[in-house]
Structures are given as structure tokens and as C-alpha cells.
Hints:
Blueprint lengths: L1 H22 E4 L3 E7 L2 E2 L7 E4 L5 E7 L3 E11 L5 E12 L2 H6 L4 H19 L2 H6 L1 H16 L4 E12 L2 H43 L1 H16 L12 H12 L26 H5 L17 H4 L6
Antiparallel strand pairs: 1-4, 2-3, 2-5, 6-7, 7-8
Helix pairs in contact: 3-5, 6-7
Amino acid sequence: MVEELLAAATAVGSAAVVYVAAAARVVKQYEKGVVLRFGRLRSGIRGPGFTMVVPFIDRMHKVNMQIVTMPVPAQDGITRDNVTVRVDAVIYFKVVDAAAAIIRVEDYRFAVSQIAQTSLRSIIGKSDLDDLLSNREKLNQGLELMIDNPAVEWGVTIDRVEIKDVSLPETMKRSMARQAEADRERRARVINADAELQASKKLAEAAGVMSETPSALQLRLLQTIVAVAAEKNSTLVLPFPVELLRFLERAAQDPSPEPRRPSAAPHPASLHVHDPHLHDALDAAPEPAPARAPATAPQARDDDAGTAGCI
Length: 311
């Protein structure tokens, strides 16, 4: 009798151990358990820890409540300005209602992946190329709203959506590179012209200061010589001031006049014709030297008295 009781107790204990092993469930901290009894949803959602279910009657589904990172495959599309692009993205979502994620959708991960791909193609067709390249924050927000609207019914909330990469055709890349190069060159020319304008103003001010103080020009010349000679050059270029050349030119064109002594006017030459009636002494008399006219009235000369035949 005792042996039979021991055998019965052993059988009951073994059955209890098998029952407990079949009914015991462990739910992790980041999970929640959804129990279906005979296919019907139980009202209570099992939290993390140890829990029991009825073996062969209850079926428990564990739902991960962590944020899931899912890459969206690259999608080919044509933008609103007729440019062919290839865009991929990444989506972050999590389950907020474990029962809805199990009951309302067959596979919520696959459903979120498909709605993300269709929404990405839709957002490509509604956007311009410039928006895809430079205004991604606005596109990310629009893409998040498009995915979040149907996902809310599945007990899933979209935490964040990011566009990762935009692939362009090679011809479009070359065109954009030429455009960027032209824009850079334009900006460089504008900056260079602005620098020349500012430098010309400063040079004009410096020239005004040097014109007031001529020695400043010579000091500037000496500074230039020192700067050139500091490089240990074999050839020294010496600038020559233009003002010095102008000074020498003016000195050559306007020499200082020397004082002149007043000279007497030459006596006009006269032609004498021999007159036989006159005395020969007149012909033999030498011509008087010219003299300065006195302040008084002039007197008649001897040779003038006998020049009746002068022309």
C-alpha cells in the first residue's frame, strides 16, 4: 500500500513538473506577452517576468517593445523637375500597443517596410531635386507623417525617418559640378574686385600723405629695398621715383637765365662813292669807330658832310 502511494505521489509530482514546465513562460523586460486562449484574445497583457499559461490551451506571443531600426531599400524615381534619382532611407519605429500589433496586422515589420517604400517613392515624385539635396528636414517630416498615419492602427508609432543618400546620374553630377565651379569663380571675381577697390582707396590715401611729406616717399623706397634684399637675391630691383624724373625734366626745360650785358647797336654800314671834287684827304680818312650816343643832341660827323653821293 505504501509503495502504491509512493508510486502515485511520484506520478503526480512528475505530472505537476511537466505541467509547470509546459505552462511556465518568462517575459523579458523589453517584451510584452499577448495570450490567446482558443484563438480569443485575453484581456490581460502579460508584463515582464515569470508567468503561467494553460498548456495546450493558451498561446502566448511575445512582442518586442524596443525601437526598431529598419533600412528602407533604395527606390528609383523621377522628381518633379524630371530628374532620375535613387534614394534610400532609414526608419525608426516601436510598438506601443502589443495586442493591436498581433491582431490587426499579420506581420507589422513587413507592413511598415512596405509602407515606407511606397511613401518614399511618393515623396520623390512630389519634390524637386534641390529639395532632396538641401531641404531634407522638411522631406523627413513629410515622410514620417505619411508612414505614421496607417501605422497607428497597427499599434506602431514612427519615431523618426531619415533620408540617407540621393544618387544622381553621372551627367547630372557633371552639370552640377560645372554650375558650382562657375558660381565659385563668380564669387572669387567679386571678392577680388572688392579687394582691389579697397586697396586703391588705401593707396590713394597713402599717396596723399606722401605728397604732403616728400621724405616719406624716400623712406618707403628704402623699406622696399630692405624687403627685397632680405631674400638673398642676386639681382636687386631698385624702383626709381617718377617724381624725381619729372623734377629733372622741368629743370632741363627751364634753365635759369644768366645776366646779360647791354651791347651797343652796330652802326649801319654805309656805301661811299668817290667824288672827284672833294679833297683826297676825305678818302684817306679812316672810318670812325662807333660810339654810344650821348644824352645830348647828336653832332654831325665829318664823313657825313661829304657824302653827297651816298646811297
